[in-house]
Amino acid sequence: xxxxxxxxxxxxxxxxxxxxxxxxCPMPVVKVAEELSKMTAGEVLVxxxxxxxxxxxxxxxxxxxxxxxxxxxxxxxxxxSLIRKGPERS
Length: 90
Hints:
Layout lengths: L15 E4 L7 H11 L6 E6 L4 H12 L2 E8 L2 E7 L6
């Protein structure tokens, strides 16, 4: 997303949900990368995590791996993030 802003994710627009609550860095990123590798380009992954570092880690993962960071919402201690799987890279 441009401008460094995030929009609240729409909870009803995901293809898969991954619960990473209770996991600390770097495990949420590792688990997300594993899950994205099983997905088809264009599918949306919702990730639930209580490690607040994911707010910076997931956008960096997306930028480096060619996925689309759709934003996050804070729900108490849980961060709900949305990531759209990018095209396969050769």
